[in-house]
Sequence to fold (254 residues):
Amino acid sequence: MRTRFILIQTSHAGNVGGTARAMKVMGFDDLVLVAPRWANVLRREETIQRASGANDVLAKARIVDTLDEALDGVDHLCATAMTPRDFGPPTRSPREHFRQLLAGGPGQSDDDRAVRPAGVAFLFGSERFGMRNEDVYRCHACLSIPTDPAFGSLNLAAAVQLIAYDWRLALGPWGSAPISNPQPRLADAASVAGMLAHWEQALVAIGFLDPAAPRKLMPRLNQMFNRAVLQEEEIHILRGVAKAMLETAARSKR
Fold:
């Protein structure tokens, strides 16, 4: 199962190095940085020092401009946040969520319990502001690490280490039998995002969505489709529905 750690708008080079070290000791090496403060952050001296030998993780890491670019090939997204949001995905402790995820996940029928994600991404926000609401809304779950309520702020690299450790425990030790990912294949995050953009265009065209006052319609649809655990074939069906709505709207204007 592919595992990716995504740091969004990271401002401290040392945390990038610390993250690489935290990942390597748990056996992970897929790191993506979204719009970091420093364009050369992977080569900065502080980054390399804090990596403490995890240079291969830094060498493989990618820097991208947008979150969409960081999500290729992953179909299950986990946000990280210290406090629950009033709206958005369910908030769970890492171990609670990982147990559900590897058991097949909530909201699936008995026939689908064996279907697990092909790729999981853990998203971490900037050191100063944390994760933006719009990024959290895209995720299937929000992981909250139990901490002292009076002092709950974790260093970014420390948070990565805790998540990586719990995920390693859930997956099992090195050399254990790999978790199978039977057909049908789940839709990845990029496919879901593309489908939602198509639906947004169609809903505006038929007058259901007012772009001047969208409220939270699209994030709510995002959460609804996340709970449905969409398969690739279902994305094609939903895209077909959006196409038909657009064609019907165009004909009505002739």
